[in-house]
Amino acid sequence: MADESIGGNNRTTAFVISARRHTLQKAAQKVGEGLLLGIASFVAIVVLFIFYFVARDAVPFFQLRGFTEFFTSTNWYPADHPAGFGALAIIYGSLMVTLGSALIAVPMGVAAAVCLSDILPFSIRQYAKPVIEMLAAIPSVAFGFFALVVLAPLLQNNGGPMLMWAWWILVTPFLLLGILVVADLLTTNVKDPNRRQQLYVILLTLFGLISVFLLYKVGTLLYAIQILTGTNALNVSIILSFMALPTIVSVSEDALQAVGRDIREGSYALGATRAETIIKTILPAASSGILAAVILGIMRALGETMVVWMASGNSSHIPEPWFNYLEAIRTLTATIAGDMGEADQVTGSARYHVLFAMGLLLLVISFISNLVSERIVVRQRKTLSGQ
Amino acid sequence: MNIGTRKILDRSFTALGIGSIAVMAMALLIVLVPIVTKGIGAVFFTGTVEHRKMLLHEFKRGGGDDLTSEIASSNRYRSKVYDMLTRFDAELEQMEPEKKREFKEKYTQVRTALQALLGPLPGDPEPMLTRFKYGATRWEKAEEKAHDLLYESKWDNSNPDVMAKEYFVSRALDFQGTSLVQLFPYVRENLDHMLVPKFTVYWGFITDSSIDSHFFGGIWPEIQGTFFLAIGAMLFAFPLGVVAAVYFTEYAKPGFFNSMLRSANSTLAGVPSIVFGMFGLAFFINTLKVSESKSVLAGALTLAIMILPTIIRAAEEAILAVPKTYREASLSLGSTKWNTIATVILPAALPGILTGGVISLGRAAGETAPIIFTAAVSVGSAIGLADVFSSPTPALSWNIYNLASEHEAASQIRHVQYGMVLALVTIVLLLNLSAIVLRARISKKLKG
Fold first, then answer.
1. CB–CB contact B373 A150 (8 Å)
2. Chain A: residue nearest B284 by CA?
3. A177: nearest CA in chain B?
4. Which domains does chain B have, with CATH numbers?
5. Which of A130, A137, A309 has the CB atom closest to B362's CB atom?
6. Which of A329, B2, B10, B350 could be a cystine partner for A275, CB 3.0 to 4.6 Å?
7. Crossing angle of helices B346-366/B296-320, nearest 10°?
8. Which chain B residues are Cβ-neighbours of A367 within 8 angstroms?
9. What is the dihedral of CA B116, B118, B123, B129, to 10 degrees?
10. How far B91 CA sits from the closest chain A CA (Å)?
11. Are A226 and B162 within 8 A, CB to CB?
12. How far is Cα A207 from Cα A212, in angstroms, rounded to an integer?
């Protein structure tokens, strides 16, 4: 103010005003930045809130009933008197479908990612990517509906023949390859080319006969299987694997792309074929990134609700024998979704809190696996850039 | 290993990769084909005269001379059936008590099957539920019901080792020697005269409300609810996400605090969707009490925190993809950092940010688990815009589950379920497709 009253020198005034404007601007910028920081930390606050509010309702369950019953008993009768809150069979069901879907999705996903990053020309890759994105975009309830209305009756009515065909289609090429490789390896040490040829042919026919017998025998065994219910762990595993695939493919493709050209070219220069280059150099170099992809994919399968709720049969028992994927099971997510509607009426009871305990369990597992996969990715980036 | 084997291994490795991509494409097709082909059947189908009667009575649509003459002619053919029933009623009265009892049960089954096919029979009391007021409205259902009328289904339990097999016995055999035996061949031959099947395009499936828990009518309340929830979630999440992305890309300095924030973001992305639902229930409804019980608002808030990480990531990528030269040019002209962001960077990154937004919108529309406890009800009419703060809404995703798994006659209304799934998948895939097209355009533009 004092400067203005002196007046006279326009230049000074201008300078002073701009200085003040400058401080104001600085202050505004600081405030703005603080505001931005506040909004950016909103996500962290939400994460903390999720943990707090789920834990707040989960802790009373453990206070009421302790840990032992929840983790070791399969006695799940939350609505009965006396109530049973043994969630072992439910946890087991979750693990079972997660493992089943991983068994299908991991080999397929890694193979597809390798194919996308190293094998296919760019022109075809352009069309493959939207397919994967669309697979990721289909709502889970649509997959669940498909599993319940289309796949379940199919499995129930034609389960045996379907299993037999799946066995034949999946195993025949691998058996064939295995025979070729084994016969080749066994004959490499034979010096005389004629004898080697003979031995090779003999071994091929021998292994061929054995594998045809194996294919046929197991095929007939599978054909005879009667699937009692189509809503079972196998059905859910298949559908979940298709939901986990997009994650696995896109994250492992990123990891494969991060492996530099020099490694690939070095391997080719040593005379390796493309498959050898990929298997012996690229995959090991990208292994940690692929592991992160697998963890993320598995988490999608473990946390999925609608498919398992609709198509797993929701029967809380450990299958007999323990690896029987053709029986109905029940998972953590489906239990939360299914029981909350009734338990909500009795807020405060163990029956309500046990569901939050399950939610907390899921939350902790997903939190840990996220941290682990993040660490892995960071470490891989460091090693690769260090080389 | 000799070179031949190595070559074969190399080829088969390539085949394995291509094979798995092909399997994924196949899986997409296998899932989509039944949904599309059967879902279309909810709108385009062969409707019977019962469908047109239903439209006239429940929605006051259609009618006119055509329908009157159709009803008259179908009634002419039906009256013979009704005559046969009255004749048999009389015959039944004449019978000895033992024989009467024997026939009575089977006759009741026949009447029930006829009611399902043609609607209430003369002399029946007015049904309470709308579903019993009309016969089979769709021709393929009518054929099923006619089959139920003509044949009795029985289960073969003779072999305890295999599952029981279904087989059919003609009902006409049960009524041998009575007047009712003519009914069966008559119904078989005159089914189309009694029901007048016609190719129907029922756009009302999209725009009508449902009647009697989805037995008739359309899915408009669900579509509207889905839009309310998805757009509500975007209203919260989109501005927040973009601002957070600006902070992460332009202001955040590497350090412990910011890496924590990033970790929080990826943790949030990995939280199982059902846990979001529990959180929404425990926080928004039970603690904050944004509404008395379930409401669109609570559901939209829950969905918003679920899609927030996706939006942040997409916006970050879009901002990082803006060429450095833009930024430098703006700064060299003397504009401030904030000015540069607001006038140069954000407009350049906008298409990319929108792409992420559109994909998140699709995700919010398709998610079910977060809205089960926070927003969704299974039955209900479309709600007004003013009610979103207090009342729950039906939504496509939840109602698909509900109709397929919990409806008391789920197998009767498969066409409605397929139609709903198709509607949801179409909404989500259209959003994603537009995102893909948008992105292709951007990459073309950035390449120049």
1. no
2. A53
3. B9
4. 48-200 (no CATH), 220-447 (1.10.3720.10)
5. A137
6. B10
7. 140
8. 267, 270
9. 50
10. 44
11. yes
12. 8
Compute the distance between CA of residue B301 and CA of residue B280 in angstroms, rounded to an integer. 8
Chain B CB contacts of A141 below 8 Å: 366, 368, 397-398, 400-401, 421, 424
Look at chain A and count its residues. Answer: 387
> How much is the pLDDT for B242?
93
User: CB distance A304–B270 less than 8 Å?
Assistant: no
Per-residue pLDDT tens for A220-277?
999 988 888 889 999 999 999 999 999 999 989 988 988 888 888 999 999 888 888 9
Confidence of residue A28 (pLDDT cuts 50, 70, 90): confident
Q: Which residues contact B305 (CB under 8 A, 6 or more apart)?
A: A46, B237, B268, B276, B279
Domains annotated on chain A, with CATH = 68-139+232-386 (1.10.3720.10)
pLDDT in tens, B40-86: 999 999 999 999 999 998 888 887 888 899 899 999 999 999 998 88
Can you tell me which residue has the tokens 């994909």?
B359
- Distance (Å, whole) CA A327 – CA A225: 12
Identify the H or E element spanning A143: helix A140-146
Contact list, B432 vs chain A (CB under 8 Å): 133-134, 137
Does the beta-carbon distance from B362 to A336 stay under 8 Å? Answer: no
pTM reported for the whole predicted model: 0.91
pLDDT above 50 for B232: yes
Residue A160 contacts B where some CB pair is shorter than 8 Å: no
pLDDT surpassing 60 at residue A6: no
